[in-house]
Amino acid sequence: MQETQKTAKDRHPMPEQPAEVRRNNFLEVPIGYTEEMAKAEASRCIQCKIPKCMEGCPVAVPIPRFIRAIAQGQFAEGIRIIWEKNGLPAVCGRVCPQEIQCEGQCVLGKKGQPVAIGNLERFLADWERAHGDGSLPDKQPPTGKRVAVVGSGPSGLTVAGDLVLKGHAVTLFEAFHKPGGVLIYGIPEFRLPKAIVESEVNTLEKLGVEIVCNTVVGRAVDVSELLDEGYDAVFVGVGAGLPRFLNVPGENLIGVYSANEYLTRANLMKAYDPLYDTPLVPGRNVVVVGGGNVAMDSARTALRMGAESVKIVYRRSREEMPARVEESHHAEQEGVEFLLLSNPLRFEGNSEGRLTSVTCERMTLGEPDASGRRRPVPLADADFTMDCDLAIIAVGSGANPLLTSSEPAIKLNRRGNIEADSDTGKTFMRGVWAGGDIVTGAATVILAMGAGRKAADSIHDYLMRGW
Amino acid sequence: MFKIVRKEELVPSSVILHEIEAPRVARKAKPGQFIILKATETGERIPLTMADTNPETGTVSVIFMVVGKSTAIFSTLKEGDAYMDLIGPLGHPTDIEQVGHVVCVGGGTGIAVLHPIARAMKKAGNRVTTILGARSENFLILKDRMGALSDTLIAMSDDGSTGRKGFVTDALKEIMTTDRPNLVVAIGPVPMMRAVSELTRPEGIHTLVSLNPVMVDGTGMCGGCRVTVGGEVKFACVDGPEFDGHKVDFNGLAQRLNAYKSAETEAMEAHRCHMEAQVQQLEKQA
Ligand SMILES: Cc1cc2nc3c(=O)[nH]c(=O)nc-3n(C[C@H](O)[C@H](O)[C@H](O)COP(=O)(O)OP(=O)(O)OC[C@H]3O[C@@H](n4cnc5c(N)ncnc54)[C@H](O)[C@@H]3O)c2cc1C
Ligand SMILES: Cc1cc2nc3c(=O)[nH]c(=O)nc-3n(C[C@H](O)[C@H](O)[C@H](O)COP(=O)(O)OP(=O)(O)OC[C@H]3O[C@@H](n4cnc5c(N)ncnc54)[C@H](O)[C@@H]3O)c2cc1C
Ligand code: SF4
Ligand code: SF4
Ligand code: FES
Predict the structure, then answer these.
(1) Is residue B262 scored above 70 in pLDDT?
(2) Residue in chain A lying closest to B90 (CA)
């Protein structure tokens, strides 16, 4: 009895690899709930009549329903409830910023701790992979229509999955040699095991989606050529793949990487695995610039690649950091240092052009800027220099113009993102839809999926009824 | 998988030609563009320029020099074997215009990169003079083919084993006084491209070079290929690989190429040293 009293208030912590152990390996950090833990956590949910949590979820996953299924031990039923709205629960349960989405709205959070919705979602998805019967959802009869999906990140995977189930023939084109987008090349193994992404991709292939890697649309073939080749509709979900640099002196020294390059070499090209030929400058004293998930992933990867010290340099304070709370928390536990209110002024190198140190200025917070966050202002005479042989720049990414510049009919906004209708994903080019980071700018997995779902509905409508 | 339909060893075990099946790429490719190849699951992504493309057979050809592990692995692939991944066409095609007298300067495997450009220059109605340079006769690749498509061919070698003894810049200097070029295209080792650019700069002769920084994706998403041109940072894979030689920061490029430097062969090093000395002399003169 006492047990239930206690569990009603506090959420069940996620079992994790100890920090001292995990900082030396690339295995996943959270280990996952047992069935007992999941049932106990699920029974904390009070099954609100008007569930606030669902308002916080961008795709409105029926949260109380799937949680009730867990509490009742109906796991197979639970995963089907999630699938109604979310095709990638194993991913979202792990990487959604739950604290500002579903869990941020949970009523239990007002007084105590919210229900661990993300952990539960992940539990069901993992349970399904381990115990499910592997049965595929039913497919509608073939419509004879063909759809080309460009980019295999969460938006493209969602569009492909939804449309193949509706009976359309879908081809997914990917520029890299492996599908999955940021889920494969960006988010590291210790946070999102690649086997999970691969199994999602396998399911799509089993459903009949044709996946064509190594195809850069805009170079190997243009969007309009895809339409000419007989595709009835094209979805563009190419992500936000243009790295931003600081534009400070010394940024081209050997040892200064964009986070995109560092993470791609580490994750997609598996630089951490001695069997792979991928080279990566080994850092002893590592500085990562930025405060988002990308910065945390880079810092924690550098630790695991053998760094002695890893520092996050961020120009605002801890409160303004955009990273998921869990990521900065995990990073700190593993020994990443946070140098807040600091901003790199220049990188210095030796005669061979290799990075040796970085000089930063100290900042203070001034008036709020357009984003509502207090603007960092440099302090005079407070510059400092640190030894550093590897620097990773993780200050955001913009829209890559490679595809869009080859197709002027797809209109762009001032920042180079595609202009698409927010309800349907329709672009200004007939027969072409877009969604995910290429439309919104760098955002989240679940928003990209949501955009994919809307576009898939609109594409289906178009294929059956017209533009 | 991308099947190798033809293999030729232009210099045994050192300079290899692979003709590979890649119909989409073959249809779209233009002179100056490159592909990225990966041989196996665990291999690196290596950029190589297309030396030739054939839309009818749906094949592209690359010519590469064995300089490190990846190119060594590539060189073991035989006819009938396949590359696991092939991505392209990447990069900006060369601007091919009729400008008059075009001097094409090639060194090392740069000659392979130069070949389709020289051919297109000729086709566009230019008078093409080609200067090729190499350590010794064995390393002077594509001499016959380049000769056939050029109006004049001059070969230079460090040891005089083929053509004249000396550097490509020696030959270029003469041509600049006797038969001033309207355009110079220089492709080869960094020191060679720098030397050519230093030579043409005071004369104001437009000079194109093709840069070969280390790359990952080839689509502008990693920034690993960044080079400084005219004081601005450019991504060679999408903004290049060709740039105005008078604006390129060759020093920065040379340094970044050493990012993952393993031991290079002594001969390569020696060749570079020759060229460095040449550059220093030119810079003193300028
Ligand atoms: C390191 C990192 C960590 C992150 N962590 C989180 C997190 O914890 N939680 C979260 O919610 N979000 C996170 N994000 C953000 C999230 O991953 C993205 O918002 C999401 O992946 C966007 O999905 P997308 O479908 O728009 O495109 P992407 O996932 O970017 O995929 C686009 C795909 O298109 C391909 N492509 C690009 N151009 C072409 C072309 N011309 N032709 C063919 N293919 C092309 C790319 O290679 C890529 O595979 C993170 C991002 C990064 C980089
Ligand atoms: C756009 C582009 C087009 C190219 N076209 C051709 C071509 O047609 N034929 C050809 O032979 N080569 C070409 N190269 C160069 C080729 O990519 C490199 O020789 C190759 O990457 C070396 O790989 P490796 O693993 O064999 O050698 P590594 O073990 O990686 O390196 C061996 C040595 O070569 C140097 N090196 C590494 N990467 C490069 C590089 N990208 N360029 C030059 N030196 C490098 C290293 O510093 C090292 O000292 C091109 C490069 C680019 C960027
Ligand atoms: S998809 Fe994300 S936001 Fe929605 S319920 Fe699941 S974890 Fe929460
Ligand atoms: S708001 Fe919280 S308690 Fe209410 S239904 Fe949602 S998860 Fe359960
Ligand atoms: S190779 Fe990655 S941006 Fe050029």
Answers:
(1) no
(2) A219
Residues A82 and A194 in one domain: no
DSSP string for residues in chain B? -EEEEEEEEEETTTEEEEEEE-HHHHHH--TT-EEEEE-STTSPPEEEEEEEEETTTTEEEEEEE--SHHHHHHHH--TT-EESEEEEEESPPP-----SEEEEEEETTHHHHHHHHHHHHHHTT-EEEEEEEESSGGG-TTHHHHHHHSSEEEEEESSSSSSEES-HHHHHHHHHHHS--SEEEEESSHHHHHHHHHHHTTTT--EEEE-----SSSSSSS-TTEEEETTEEEEHHHH-SEEETTTB-HHHHHHHHTTT--PPPHHHHHHHHHHHHHHHHHHHH-
How far is the C-alpha of B170 from the C-alpha of B175, rounded, in Å?
Answer: 9
Cα-to-centroid distance, A103 and ligand 2 (Å): 50
CA dihedral B194, B196, B200, B201 (to 10 degrees): 0
Pair (A415, A294) in one structural domain = no
What's the Cα-to-Cα distance from B31 to each of B36, B129, B207, rounded to whole Å?
15, 18, 17
**B267 falls in which pLDDT band (50, 70, 90)?**
very low
Distance separating alpha carbons of residues B31 and B112, to the nearest angstrom:
11
The ipTM estimated for the assembled molecules is 0.90
DSSP A46: -
Q: Which residue in B78, B96, B84, B99 sits closest to B33, CA to CA? A: B96
For a pocket test of ligand 3, which of A52, A82, A446 has the largest count of ligand atoms closer than 8 A to its C-beta?
A: A446
Residue-wise DSSP of A106-128: -THHHHSPPP-HHHHHHHHHHHH
Higher-pLDDT residue of B280, B19 = B19
Task: Report the DSSP pairing between strands A432-434 and B34-38.
Answer: unpaired
Q: Does A163 share its domain with A114?
A: no
Looking at chain A from residue 168 to 187, which residues have their Cβ under 8 Å from any Cβ of chain B? 175-177
DSSP state of A30: B
Length of chain A: 467
- B212 C-beta closer than 6 A to ligand 2: yes
Nearest CA to ligand 2 atom 24: B68
Q: Are both A114 and A226 inside the same structural domain?
A: no
Containing domain of residue A208, as a range?
146-241+400-465
Ligand 2 binding pocket mutation candidate from B14, B48, B53, B211 (most atoms within 8 A of CB): B48
A357: left (phi over 0), alpha (psi -120 to 50) or beta: beta
| Closest residue by CA, ligand 4 atom 1 | A106
Which is nearest to B70 in space by CA: A198, A269, A404, A208?
A: A269
Residues A249 and A353 occupy one common structural domain:
yes
CB of A433 closer than 8 Å to CB of A424 = yes
Spatial CA neighbour of A349 closest among A302, A309, A391: A391
pLDDT in tens, A69-97: 999 999 999 999 999 889 899 999 999 99
With tokens 């297109």, the residue in question is B120
Strand ranges inside A308-423, DSSP E: 309-313, 337-339, 342-349, 355-368, 374-378, 384-387, 390-393, 397-398
Instruction: Provide the whole-model pTM.
Output: 0.91
Contact call for residues A427 and A411 (beta carbons, < 8 A): yes
**What is the rounded CA–CA span in Å between residue B153 and residue B114?**
13
Do the chains contact at B221 and A257, CB–CB below 8 Å?
no
C-alpha radius of gyration, chain A, whole number: 23
Confidence of residue A8 (pLDDT cuts 50, 70, 90): low
CB A293 within 8 A of CB A319: no
**Are both A335 and A287 inside the same structural domain?**
yes
* Residues A379, A250 within the same domain: yes
Res B50: pLDDT: 93
One domain for residues A376 and A427: no
